[in-house]
Amino acid sequence: MIVNSGSAKWEGGLKDGKGYISTKSGVLSDQPYGFNTRFEGKPGTNPEELIGAAHAACFSMALSMILQGAGVTDVTIETTSQIGLDKDGDGFSIKTAHLVTKISGNGDAAVIEDCARKAEKGCPVSKVLNAEVTLDVTVV
């Protein structure tokens, strides 16, 4: 089993507090986040943005593997994962993760799109999200 981790430290209340996010690799080290970056569009990161980046990266890697297995070559994949945070009773829930991907490669467009659909369901981050995971595909 491969284990990676992220960590967070929070100080203060929800609206007046501040937090710091780090990753095991050190790529993120005490990066600030807070209510204002999550709900008010202020500069900085937030959990949904980080989940979106992880989802887009995981999907793109899974798709690359599937395309290679299908004989598609010279592949370029650009993916965004839009994570939807919705009010849910007294709190919030992530209920949607919408993948938008643009794929170029040497291969049949229908095969490339089919591979993307397989990656949508098969990537480990898609599997872990307790959310509806959807996908838009553009093949160029």
TrEMBL record:
Transmembrane segments: none
A Pfam cross-reference name: OsmC
Name this polypeptide is given: OsmC family peroxiredoxin
Swiss-Prot/TrEMBL GO biological process terms: response to oxidative stress
GO molecular function terms noted in the UniProt entry: peroxidase activity
Top-level taxon: Bacteria
InterPro entries membership: KH_dom-like_a/b, OsmC/Ohr_fam, OsmC/Ohrsf, OsmC_Ohr_Peroxiredoxin, Peroxiredoxin_OsmC
